[in-house]
Design goal:
- The structure holds 2 protein chains of 2 kinds.
- By secondary structure, chain A is an alpha+beta fold.
- In chain A, about 15% of the residues lie in helices and about 30% in strands.
- Chain A contains 7 helices and 23 strands.
- In chain A, a hairpin with a 3-residue loop joins strand 14 and strand 15.
- In chain A, helix 1 crosses helix 5.
- The longest helix of chain A is centred in the N-terminal third of the chain and has 11 residues.
- In chain B, the strands form 3 sheets. An 8-stranded mixed sheet of chain B has the order 12-9-10-7-6-13-5-14. Chain B has a 4-stranded antiparallel sheet with strand order 1-2-4-3.
- In chain B, a hairpin with a 3-residue loop joins strand 3 and strand 4.
- The longest helix of chain B is centred in the N-terminal third of the chain and has 17 residues.
- Chain B is elongated.
- The relative contact order of chain B is 0.16.
- The chains are: A alpha+beta, B alpha+beta.
- Chains A and B meet through strand 16 and helix 4 of A and strand 1, strand 2, strand 3 and strand 4 of B.
Chain lengths: ~325, ~240
């Protein structure tokens, strides 16, 4: 049976998928991959549908031994990776033989990397998802000794693919107004847009703290404000007026006022902002936010269109003769249909 | 006067907020309005949920525009005073055994003092009425139960208890919560129950729904552990008509 044996793992390595939808009324926030875009990129490379489960690695990867021949993709934050000592290209698909060890080190930039096997991680779903969700107490981070089942790959012979790198987005992260935005005076909203924030080292899948040099952001909300629904991307002002941008594992309800909501289309930028990264915010209208919304299926389709055939990364070509490129020509290499 | 504010909650959500202060009629309005929306089956709506005083309407912006949905919700709000609406049908009353004695109730005396009653009277007040599941939140299946009488309007402690166990029965501001998971809290622990808000082995795993009711049955300290291995920690459901 296909599987992945965890030999070592960083503290933030866990199974993640597209999250659990429909649980807000039962106290269960969706959770799922912290960087939806990085996760979907892995699915795009594997030709897999939304929902298939991958391994998310926060800041640091781990060592994984394949129990069978396995096709996999590496996406999200670029991490140093090698297969039995041979360096691997990121944002690309690879193939491991049974018994080979994949070694994924620290992120070279960003936070969340994704390791997606072709068939997907096939653990038993709990409440409609496979992802670790800390505040809901569902699942566990991966630890040495774990063996994860992998479902059969529907396309084991798919050609190697890569996603060409995109220019890193610049400019402010877009924020739309939310139910409590009106509690903040205009001057506070303006100061918030003008502030240069730094992503604090304090942060996890629940949310990340944003630091700045100016005054705290006081709301006019009263203390007897009732707790109400939170959504992923909400920017919560804690008691001392420090903003936290809430991510996938946020709570379903909260009493702290929220100044606005980071657009889903931009939230991956916050998730991938490493400690010390600079961030600014800009308010957009609800109409702009609605126009920027894309379903996971649409995002996945767009990523699939960007895929390209991967020529072997020269770093991997230490020994050309060991490649099937030479020994056993594939159709497209030899010119046969 | 508008009955509720319709507010954006993320690019794919609307919040129908009946009040920004906790109140029984606003909670009832949210429960009733959610039930009405369920029946209305609005195209493009992917999720309906209630908080203490609001209804979340999650939608697919590629199937229904926000403006059209807002119009639809405004129309649904009209013609009825939702704060006068009865509770929806199909609710369940859960009888939940709990103990309010000994080490299971470290803060009962403090809570009773704050309310100004004896501990016996405090337990009688808690067990003598059905409490509504005002909302589920913070952890899967964890209910906010209310409302205790007015003199139970006691604020949370400013100092946190570092950790209360799963099943701790906590009290603050006219509400009771049986905790789903071990957690730090400023609420007072007045009892303990073997009932689990989320029990993967039980059917259903998330027993409570917003609008359901809970009645605690006081059992002696010596008996409560025997409920651990029973389905739902010994809690029994009763259909409310």
């Amino acid at each position: 049976m296909s599987g992945l044996e965890v030999l070592s793992a960083g503290p933030g390595v866990s199974v993640q998928d597209a999250g659990r939808s429909g649980g807000m009324g039962q106290g269960l926030s969706p959770g799922g991959a912290a960087d939806r875009r990085g996760y979907l990129s892995g699915l795009a490379l594997m030709g897999a549908p939304v929902g298939r489960a991958a391994i998310e690695m926060a800041g640091m990867g781990g060592k994984f031994r394949f129990k069978a021949d396995t096709r996999f993709a590496l996406t999200g934050a670029v991490m140093r990776a090698s297969l039995d000592g041979k360096p691997l290209e990121w944002h690309a698909t690879h193939r491991a033989a049974a018994g080979q060890t994949l070694d994924i080190g620290a992120a070279e930039g960003g936070v969340y990397g994704y390791l997606t096997p072709g068939g997907g991680i096939d653990t038993e779903p709990v409440l409609g998802g496979r992802g670790y969700h800390r505040i809901a107490d569902l699942g566990q981070p991966l630890k040495p000794g774990d063996t994860l089942p992998i479902a059969a790959d529907p396309e084991p012979d798919a050609p190697p693919l890569r996603l060409p790198p995109e220019a890193a987005p610049k400019g402010p992260v877009r924020v739309m107004p939310g139910p409590q935005t009106a509690f903040f005076p205009d001057a506070v909203l303006e100061a918030f847009e003008a502030a240069q924030f730094t992503r604090s080292p304090k942060g996890n899948r629940q949310g990340v703290r944003m630091e700045h040099d100016g005054d705290p952001f006081a709301s006019g909300a009263q203390l007897n404000q009732v707790s109400d629904f939170i959504t992923e991307g909400d920017i919560q002002m804690t008691g001392d007026g420090t903003p936290y941008v809430l991510l996938a594992d946020c709570q379903t309800m909260g009493g702290y006022p929220r100044i606005g909501t980071v657009l889903a289309a931009d939230l991956w930028r916050i998730a991938q902002a490493g400690p010390g990264a600079g961030v600014t915010f800009r308010f957009v209208t609800v109409e702009e936010a609605e126009a920027a919304w894309r379903s996971d299926d649409d995002l996945l389709r767009a990523l699939v269109k960007r895929r390209e055939r991967r020529l072997r990364d020269p770093r991997e070509m230490k020994d050309l003769l060991s490649y099937e490129l030479i020994g056993k020509p594939e159709g497209e290499v030899s010119g046969q249909a | 006067m508008t009955q509720a504010d319709i507010l954006p909650l993320g690019p794919d959500g609307l919040l129908v907020r009946f009040s920004d202060k906790l109140s029984e009629p606003a909670n009832r309005a949210a429960l009733a309005f959610r039930a009405a929306l369920e029946e209305r089956a609005v195209e493009g709506v992917s999720e309906l949920a209630t908080s203490l005083t609001s209804v979340l309407v999650r939608f697919r912006p590629d199937r229904v525009g926000r403006a059209a949905l807002e119009e639809n919700l405004t129309e649904a709000l009209e013609g009825r005073d939702w704060q006068e609406a009865p509770l929806p049908e199909g609710r369940t009353l859960w009888h939940i055994p709990a103990t309010f004695e000994g080490d299971y109730a470290p803060d009962l005396e403090d809570a009773a003092n704050a309310v100004g009653v004896s501990t016996d009277d405090a337990v009688r007040a808690i067990t003598g009425q059905s409490l509504r599941v005002l909302a589920l939140g913070f952890a899967p299946g964890q209910p906010y139960l209310g409302f205790l009488p007015d003199d139970w309007n006691v604020a949370r402690r400013t100092e946190l208890t570092p950790e209360v166990p799963r099943g701790a029965v906590l009290f603050a501001v006219r509400q009771i919560i049986p905790f789903a998971n071990p957690a730090p809290t400023g609420w007072r622990q007045i009892g303990w129950t073997a009932f689990r808000c989320y029990d993967p082995a039980a059917d259903p795993p998330l027993p409570l729904k917003p609008g359901d009711e809970v009645r605690f049955a006081a059992v002696p300290e010596s008996e409560i552990e025997s409920h651990r291995d029973k389905p739902h920690g010994g809690a029994e459901p009763e259909a409310l008509s």
